[in-house]
Each structure stands twice: as structure tokens, then as C-alpha cells.
Amino acid sequence: MEMHQLRYVVSVARTGNFSRAAEQCHVSQPSLSQQIQKLEEELGERLFDRLKRHVKLTAVGEKFVHRAARILEEVETASREARDVQGLIHGTVAVGVLPTIAPYLLPRVIAAFATKHPGLEVIVQEETTAQLLKLARACEIDFALVSLPIHDNHFVKETLFSEELLLAVPPGHRLAKRRRVSANDLESERFILMKEGHCLGDQVLGFCNRRDFQPQVSLRSTQIETIKALVQSGLGISLIPAMAIENIKSASPVYRSLGHPRPMREICVVWPQSRPPSVPGHAFLRVLRGCTLHAKKAKP
Fold first, then answer.
1. Would you state the CATH architecture of domain 93-160+271-292?
2. Which of 52, 173, 179, 284 is deepest in the core (most CB within 10 A)?
3. CATH 3.40.50.150 fits 3-87, yes or no
4. Is the pTM of this model over 0.85?
5. What is the DSSP string of the chain?
């Protein structure tokens, strides 16, 4: 009795047809039929009644298929567990991430991951949300770290934490001297935003629009650090994610929280529903969740 014979019998039982079972098992129909007949001769019992257009399990066949399916499941489980162990020894994790997240969150996550799984390689790709989703659909990355909302229902979305967007103003600016700043105070200001296509820029515009004013956008950039430097030079104001500020008390530009409801963004990890993360990918997700578990979750 061979494992492939068990697979052939289970496949025929499920499809009710030798031809379809042969297609599923990627063998010719004569070969599949011959192997099942050989097994029946070894058992001394017929497993199937061959009818004109389909086959039907005999009483013996029903009992045999039940056992065979359990054996195949156990073998597959054992094989998968062996691959999982090997996958955590050698493997690659491809992570797509927004450039407004990557330099501030990933270093400590990757450091923790490297300590726990030194044999696994991490590949980081920074892109806009639209490009990251395209890469995930094309199986070029295991998952993506992005900011909500994500409107594509073909993805699994897991929120990691929320963070505040803080107002950044130049030193000496009139708003730098205030302890409390409201959205109304921003209407006459010149904004420096992320380039179009970057979700952080859209989130700032959305916040302003919900406060019934259209911001005056004077500059755009693809890098948060450049925006901070431009604000520092007195060329405008912006909203900066809290994770991009190392020490708010000594930081320059000057940062202030806006009045309620404060501008926020939610950081999440996504992957296609049709393709769960690989074994190394799941290992990375566990470390990622652990590193973000104690992130401050501010409520809007």
C-alpha cells in the first residue's frame, strides 16, 4: 500500500469520477485506475462500484476512505510542521511599508526580529499605499504596513495602534507661544505637506476639510524629515505623526496638540485574503505585534 494510492482513492471518492480525480492528482487516468485496481487486489475487496457515468463507494470503500483521509491529513500536518521549522531557520520576509512609518517604527522591530530569528532575512520596500497594495496582490511582498483607511476588501486588515498628528510650527511662530491651538487658528497659515499620492498628505487635507477650511499648500515633499526641516526654516507649518518626533519637549520645530477632536492616524498591517503570510512572515508578525502592543493608543 502506497501513499499515492491513498491519495488517488480519496480523490476519486471526492470527485465521483476517475477522470476528474486524475486531473486533480496530475496523473493519467489509466495510471490512476491501475493503481486503485492494484490496491483493491491487495486488499481483496472492491472500493468502488464502477457505474456508467460515475463511481460509488462500496461499504468497505467508505470505511477505507475515512481512514485514508485521516492518514493523509496526519502526513500533511507532519510535513507542514517540518517545513515550518526549516522555514524559521532559513527564509525571507518581504515587508512593504509607508515612508512615513519605516524609519520610525521598523528599526526596533527588525532589531527584535533579528535577535529572535537570526537566520531570516528581511527585505524592506518603501512605497505609497496604492503601490504597496499592488505589490501585495502580485505576491512581491508578504504584507504591508500602512495607514487606514484601506477600501480594498480583498485584504485582511489588522490595526496595530493609533497615533496623534501633531502641529509643527517654526520657533518663534505666533502659535508656538500658545498652550492650546485650535483648527481655526490654522486657516491663514501656509502648509507643507507630503506629495500627492502619500496618504499622510490626504489625511491632513481631510482634517482641514472636516474643520470647514481649505489649507493653503505652499510646499510638498516625499520625506517627513524634509518637511520638518522646511518648517524649522520658517517656510510653513505641518502636521507630523507622533512617531516621527523623538523628544517633543526639546524638539525643533515646536510641536503642539490641536484641540479635540485631534487629528489621528491608525497604523495597520495588511495582506491578501487569498494568500496568508508565509511561516517567516508569521514570525515577523508576532514580533511586530509585540513591539507595538504597548504603543500609546490615543483616542480621538
1. 3-Layer(aba) Sandwich (3.40)
2. 284
3. no
4. no
5. --HHHHHHHHHHHHHS-HHHHHHHHTS-HHHHHHHHHHHHHHHTS--EEE-SS-EEE-HHHHHHHHHHHHHHHHHHHHHHHHHHHHHTTSEEEEEEE-TTTHHHHHHHHHHHHHHH-TTEEEEEEE--HHHHHHHHHTTSSSEEEEES----TTEEEEEEEEEEEEEEE-TT-GGGG-S-B-GGGGTTSEEEEEPTT-HHHHHHHHHHHHTT---EEEEEES-HHHHHHHHHTTS-BEEEEGGG-S-TTT-SSEEEPBSSSPPEEEEEEEEETTS---HHHHHHHHHHHHHHTTS-----
